[in-house]
Amino acid sequence: MNDPDVDFSYEPIADRYAASIDEAPYNALYERPAMLAALPDVEGRRILEAGCGAGWYTEQLLARGARVTAVDASAALVEHTRRRLATLGAEARARGEVRVADLRERLDFAADGSFDGIVSALVMHYLRDWSTAMAEFRRVLAPGGWLLFSTHHPAADAARLPEGASYFDVVQEQDEWARVGTVRFYRRPLTAIGDALAGAGFGIERIVEPRPTDAFRAIKPDAYDRLLRQPEFILVLARPW
Predict the structure, then answer these.
(1) Which helix (H) or strand (E) segment is 85 a member of?
(2) SS3 198
(3) Are the beta carbons of 108 and 139 closer than 8 angstroms?
(4) What Å distances lie between residue 230 and 41, 130, 209, CA to CA?
């Protein structure tokens, strides 16, 4: 896209997103299995879900015994998450809290060291500048805490670069999602991801490049073969130094 960047919000497309995301193959059969496999033990732990969307991960974390504070910048998606949690049992509901919060701003509701882990699934590529979010993640994590996030794989974004574009620039792009609408996000080089983590005092413990599942292959064989050559997402598990 041409500058200036357009602030992106899920508000106009929240209902369409919530209605379709749980069946979307790249989420349900590709990113989510990899995230759950990489997830540290959350039973009894205080977890911040940074960017809860329609609440699928919120439900999964509660099912695994976590105490969850789920936040999203979209008030409409927060309501979708609250409605999802309302269908759970009383004990699980009591361990969950959902609120509106923008990762570009200070998380004023959270005290220093108030969480044992942070989960952020396919959220960070909506932020141009990661410095505030990473600094806040570092601040609110307790000693021994961890951060697990997924985002666009820089190699996948690079493969779609137009002639004359630089891989090393952080640039806003636009995509059209079937059944959802227009989505804007930022592509960034792997160096920028590493620098943002290091600058906030995080060390990378593990990097995961997801492999598509057999279930994904059954419904999208061509995309399956492509993902074996060009991963679409990258997962990072990091801990404070």
Answers:
(1) helix 75-86
(2) helix
(3) no
(4) 30, 25, 10
Specify the pTM: 0.96
| 3-state SS assignment for residue 167 | coil
What does the chain come to in residues? 241
Q: CA 5 → CA 36, 174, 231, distances in Å?
A: 33, 10, 26
Which tens digits make up the pLDDT trace of 165-182?
999 999 999 999 988 999
Q: How far apart are CA 184 and CA 126, in angstroms?
A: 7
> How far apart (Å, rounded) are the C-alpha atoms in residues 240 and 18?
33
Q: Is 36 helix (H, G, I), strand (E, B) or coil?
A: helix
Closest CA to 146 of 32, 13, 46: 46
Kindly report, residue by residue over 113-143, the tens digit of the pLDDT: 999 999 999 999 999 999 999 999 999 999 9
**Residue 4: cis peptide before it, omega within 30 degrees of 0:** yes
Contact 123, 57 (CB under 8 A): no
Mean pLDDT (the chain, rounded)? 96
**Please, which residues bridge with residue 119 across strands?**
49, 148
User: Would you state the structure tokens that stand for residue 202, as one six-digit string?
Assistant: 């995080």
Task: Give the span between the Cα atoms of 180 and 12, in whole angstroms.
Answer: 10
- Alpha-carbon radius of gyration of the chain: 17
- Proportion of the chain above pLDDT 90, given as a percent: 95
Strand 67-72 to 96-100 pairing: parallel
- Give the residue among 65, 78, 77 at the shortest CA–CA distance from 13: 77
**Residues 63, 52: Cα–Cα separation, whole Å:** 15
pLDDT of 178? 87
